[in-house]
Design brief:
about 400 residues, mainly alpha, about 0% strand
């Protein structure tokens, strides 16, 4: 089964701690498994302790010379490190997990390790390698033949199709994922598919098609409402309710953004950055810029590779423009366009180019470059059938002859 990461259950924590206390020193492999499981349980509630316990689990598993225990310990370690500052180390841990699982002959653990590699490669912008990893996962999942291990393959391929603007292909893959998920009776499948469909609407700028009421319901029911409220803020900002958007941006960025999680869901900070830039909240912009700046080289990923928001430089560029740092903004937006192009994401390249052209068009003396950039953005958007972006680029070109 794929590793389940949920809010800590106090009774589960108590039982794991009791089991650890009763495990003799002569059974390091058992202790390693228990520590790994406990570190996963504590991920959301006490990440420093989760990291400490997972490191101990790996050390014990290595000392035990038990490859299966080591794979389990590395799984816990990968979860405990799920934050943007650990992106490179996470990939190393996931790769080691695959090796340990293969040595143990544990095909499900091998698949879990490859699952993590897909996510981490996407976050590092190594999209071609991520696609190859999906193929490797798919081949092994077909051998194992269990539906609950297979439905993520079309989800990942759908995410890759969204990066290249193959909207119909992505939709077909989402339908395939949903059918496989239902066959597996996996309750996560419908939600994951809907998240990817929303990501497709986000990439195309179809904010009017977003289900605002559903976002509000999910926020009200979730133990981590900020993950939904950031999307609500952007939808309101883009669809004509700026007061609601300003209120949400202000609340979510208050106290240094303490409600925002720089963990597995750090992509939400990028979404809120778009909302803050749209409504012009400079105070929020300062907070969000400080949170994102250390991770500019990364590509924020939604959940387990359900979608990608492209280069984080785009969102930092938007924030720098909001803060009046126009030279920084232009540099970051150029880097965003280049990084997205290298990663094979013309969709996010077009978005970054449009934002760059928009910035340049507003600066005296940059009109010629602005026109060139906006023409490029408009052509790409038209080719990719991103009609809203193509229309906005054309409008700016008309306004700045």
């Amino acid at each position: 089964m794929p590793t389940v990461i949920a809010r800590a259950d106090p009774e589960t924590v108590r039982l794991l701690e009791a089991a650890l206390a009763g495990t003799p020193a002569s059974e390091p492999a058992i202790a390693a498994r228990l520590l790994a499981r406990l570190s996963i349980e504590l991920y959301h509630s006490d990440r420093p302790r989760a990291r400490e316990l997972s490191a101990e689990a790996v050390a014990l598993a290595r000392a035990s010379n038990d490859a299966s225990a080591l794979a389990a310990a590395l799984d816990g370690r990968r979860v405990a490190l799920w934050a943007p500052e650990h992106a490179d180390e996470r990939l190393e841990v996931a790769t080691a997990m695959v090796a340990a699982a293969e040595a143990a002959g544990d095909r499900e653990a091998t698949l879990q390790g490859r699952n993590w590699r897909v996510v981490d490669l996407m976050e590092l912008g190594r999209i071609d390698e991520a696609a190859a990893e999906v193929d490797a996962y798919a081949a092994l999942a077909d051998e194992v033949g269990l539906p609950h291990l297979r439905w993520y393959v079309p989800i990942w391929r759908g995410a890759l199709a969204l990066l290249t603007g193959h909207w119909a292909m992505a939709n077909a893959l989402q339908n395939e994922a949903l059918a496989l998920g239902r066959r597996a009776d996996d309750p996560d499948a419908p939600l994951v598919v809907e998240i990817q469909r929303a990501n497709a609407r986000y990439a195309q700028g179809r904010f009017a098609d977003m289900d605002r009421e559903r976002l509000a319901r999910e926020a009200a029911a979730s133990p981590a409402p900020a993950e939904w409220l950031v999307q609500l803020a952007l939808v309101d900002a883009e669809t004509g309710d700026p007061e609601s958007a300003r209120r949400l941006v202000r609340e979510l960025s208050a106290d240094g953004g303490r409600r925002l999680a720089m963990d597995a869901n750090w992509h939400g900070v990028c979404v809120l950055a778009e909302a803050a830039a749209t409504v012009g909240d400079r105070e929020a912009g300062e907070v969000l810029h400080a949170l994102l700046a250390p991770h500019a080289r990364l590509f924020p990923v939604v959940a387990r590779g359900v979608g990608s928001l492209g280069s984080a430089e785009l969102y930092l560029g938007r924030l720098a423009a909001l803060l009046g740092r126009h030279d920084e903004a232009a540099a970051r937006l150029r880097r965003a366009a280049d990084a997205n192009a290298r990663a094979g994401s013309p969709v996010h390249e077009a978005i970054a180019l449009f934002r760059l052209g928009e910035l340049l068009a507003a600066r005296p003396g940059d009109g010629h470059e602005a026109r060139h950039v906006l023409q490029h953005a408009g052509r790409l958007a038209s080719e990719l059938c991103i009609t809203d972006l193509a229309s906005r680029a054309a409008h700016l070109l008309d306004a700045h002859p």
